[in-house]
Amino acid sequence: MGDMGCHIIDPVAWALKLGHPVTIQASYTETNYDSAPKASTIHYEFPAREGMPPVKLHWYTGGLTPERPAELEEGRKLGGGDNNGVIFVGDKGKLMCGCYAAGPRIIPETKMRAFLEGGRPEKTIPRSDGVHRDWINACKGQGKASSNFDVSGPLTEIVLLGNLAIQCPEAKEQILKWDGDQMKVTNIDAANKYVNPPYRGDWTLQ
User: Fold this and answer.
1) Residues 6+ apart with CB under 8 A from 50
2) How far is residue 140's CA from residue 133's CA, in Å, rounded to a whole number?
């Protein structure tokens, strides 16, 4: 998940204020210590947070895809049309976007057009001047980078927990229970060696 996970999940984690998951479960093709499986699905559960109800996140890779929404027009591709993307499933409808949150659209397109007839929503998120300028400005004390550690830390945690669920053999076909405040798997202790791996010899991390 480390390759594209942060790019694709970012708009989900940001918009839904995901924070720590409470459970993670992975299903995958053959794997080994040195490489990722050819295909995998990873399922997360997040608790209620900031006035939002509990939510589930499902990750698919290696050619696997979620069920095609009934609202999606025939011939139209999922996500961004390039085998990457996100589908937000809500009580009142579905929204789809590509990688990096590109081209968000309500589906079907008739619903999107009806929504836009009321006028485009006001822009409430500051626009970035680009990742390099963003970073340089933050180094100079001119505001925060758009993906500062408050954002990127929890997002990276989500991605790495998916990797952990795949890498830990004791977790295969099991549900991992995660305590984000303690940074610990609470039901399969063998998984914690991937959270805080032992260092060789006299090496330590201060």
Assistant:
1) 17
2) 11
What digits encode the pLDDT tens for the residues 109-119? 999 999 999 89
AA identity, residue 20? H
**Cβ pair 10, 4 in contact under 8 A:** no
pLDDT in tens, 46-98: 999 999 999 999 999 999 999 999 999 999 999 877 888 999 999 999 999 99
Regarding beta strands 23-28 and 105-107, do their DSSP bridges make them parallel or antiparallel, or are they unpaired?
A: unpaired
d(Cα 163, Cα 59) in Å, to the nearest integer?
Answer: 11
Q: Residue 149 is which amino acid?
A: F
User: Would residue 177 be called left, alpha or beta, if left means φ above 0 and alpha means ψ between -120 and 50 degrees?
Assistant: beta
**pTM surpassing 0.85?**
yes
Kindly list the domain boundaries of the chain, sorted by start residue.
Answer: 5-195
Q: Which two tokens stand for residue 10?
A: 């970012």
CA distance 120 to 82: 26
Contacts of 40 (CB under 8 A, 6+ apart): 26, 27, 28, 29, 59, 60, 61, 62, 64, 166
